[in-house]
Amino acid sequence: MTVLSTVRPAPVRPAPARPRHDRLRHVAVALLAAVAMLLLAPVPGRAADPAFQQWLQALWPDAQKLGVSRATFEQAIRGIEPDLSLPDLVIPGRPQAPPRGQAEFVQTPAEYLREKTLASLAGQGRSLLAQHRETLRRIEERFGVPPAVVLAIWGRETAFGNYKLPHDALRVLATQGFYGRRKDMFRTELLYAMKMMQDGVPRADMRASWGGAMGLTQFLPSELYKHGVDFDGDGRRDIFRSVPDALASAAQQLAAKGWQAGHHWAYEVRPPRNLDCTIADPDNVKPLREWQAQGFVPAGGRRFAAADLQENASLLMPAGTHGPSFLILRNYYVIKDYNFSDLYVLFVGNVADRIAGGGPFERAWDPVVQLRTADLEAMQQRLTALGLYKDKIDGKAGMRTRLALGAYEKANGLPLDCWPDAAVLDHMRGRTAGR
């Protein structure tokens, strides 16, 4: 609801005119800035950095080893210029920005796991479950992955094919391979993208995310060669147009990563009162039956499946005490290996549960604030100096960061919520300044 103010705004007074020499100086500065932008901007048909073209040409021996012909190689690199608008690049002469990354790592749980989005995708997923029932039955029979899970991945990755990936895959992979933070990985993916062209994938089909993933269920090129499946029997592994191929390929990848048929991925739970959130440690593992004996009750009126009771589980609190709690099982980590993000797994898992007849999260997500990347990095550096954090400095509020923060809150008598916020950061900075 919009509230209209009844207070009359103060009249706006015109600013005094600038002296003529100041205006001329302002115009001159603007013109110089414009010229500088034109000089620095990539020119169509010409690479922004000659070294980039030399790097592309130097890929030929390795491309040839993968069976790429010279003609395909030249077609693949012809006209490619780096896309300097992509995130996570390290460009000489340009101030280095912090990693921007995926939405899973820069949004709060409440922002990423919007109820409207989850409910909409689950509804579409139920319709597609009926439409592709026989194909999905055969996929589960062969790979052991339930229909709802592969449908949820399809929904999250490309909204069931309705989201059109925005980038040319070869340009993305070349840019990330030359300027990115994971050069070796993207160089390899670029070579496999050339192999895809050699094997008959039209260049026009090769649209990608900013990270180079392609197809209905978003595969990197090397993953297509590891896990791609021709499930419709037409002799091609088509992850772009064939729903059976794309879903079977996703299931094959999950199976290869260790999916356990007949087991769930996680359970939302009601924890005991006055829970110490620092026990939400991935290393704090014990059988699900023991968690149950300690008072962790499945949310939403569910029961723990008998097949899961002896399986090891750990506690996950993605928003600290400001959101739902989960006991996560082996299949949770299999989905996480598909996309290394807790929020991604919760998104896919919840949509899958809803497609299979379940409902929304029982405990609502509080609207917590996500600190800026630089602030989270400063917090991680301080926690590292105190010996509480031993993981990488990445500016992300991941499991290890939340756990270390909870330990800091306990050690300093602060309210214990295991969520990085401005108040705790100010406390850290105050202690540092007071030394």
List segments where confidence is low: pLDDT < 50 over at least 5 consecutive residues: 1-47
Number of helices: 19
Number of extended strands: 8
Helix/strand-derived class? Answer: mainly alpha
Strand neighbour order, sheet with most strands: 4-6-8-3-5
- What is the ordering of alpha helices and beta strands? HHHHHHHHHEHHEHHEEHEEEEHHHHH
Relative strand content: 5-15%
Helix content: 40-55%
Mean pLDDT: 88
Termini Cα gap: 48 Å
Major pleated sheet: 5 strands, antiparallel
Rg value: 26 Å
The geometry reads as globular
What does this structure look like?
- It is built from 19 helices and 8 strands.
- Helices cover 47% and strands 6% of the residues.
- Among the domains are: 48-107 and 166-212, no CATH class; 373-433, Muramoyl-pentapeptide Carboxypeptidase, domain 1 (Orthogonal Bundle), CATH 1.10.101.
- Residues 1-47 have low confidence and may be disordered.
- The chain has helices spanning 20-40, 50-57, 60-65, 70-77, 103-106, 109-112, 115-131, 133-143, 147-158, 169-179, 183-198, 221-227, 243-256, 288-293, 330-338, 342-355, 373-385, 399-411, 422-433; strands at 167-168, 207-208, 266-270, 286-287, 297-298, 312-316, 318-321, 325-328.
- The strands form 2 sheets. A 5-stranded antiparallel β-sheet has the order 4-6-8-3-5.
- With 435 residues, it is mostly helical.
- The two termini are 48 Å apart.
- One of its GO terms (molecular function) is peptidoglycan lytic transglycosylase activity.
- This is Membrane-bound lytic murein transglycosylase B.
- Residues 374-428 form the Peptidoglycan binding-like domain.
- Residues 52-353 form the Transglycosylase SLT domain.
- InterPro entries: Lysozyme-like_dom_sf (IPR023346), MltB-like (IPR043426), MltB_2 (IPR011970), Peptidoglycan-bd-like (IPR002477), PGBD-like_sf (IPR036365), PGBDSf (IPR036366), SLT_2 (IPR031304).
